[in-house]
Amino acid sequence: MRSKSFPMPCLLLGASLALVSSCARPERATPTFPPSADLQAVTEHKPVPPAAIATSEAAADAYDIAIESWGNRLAAAGGRLCRWAARMGAALPFDCPAAAPGADAGD
Hints:
mainly alpha, rod-shaped
């Protein structure tokens, strides 16, 4: 006649494995944030036009340069943030712009 004690060792083995696996320390998930310089760049305020642009061509030219520079900084930071998100595994529904030639390759 076959002994019915066979299920007991299996149950004990399963219970001991469950206890051992619960002793392991869970890994803490640490949040990952984009580079702070890029976040700062994309929140930079648009240059305010001075009143002198109405009467001075030099002031208007300087303001045009300030606006173009601001837009270029904003676009470059946005591209870096996009490429960073893609490297972190974000499933983006669009392609990120390529880095500008001569730009930092480690963005």
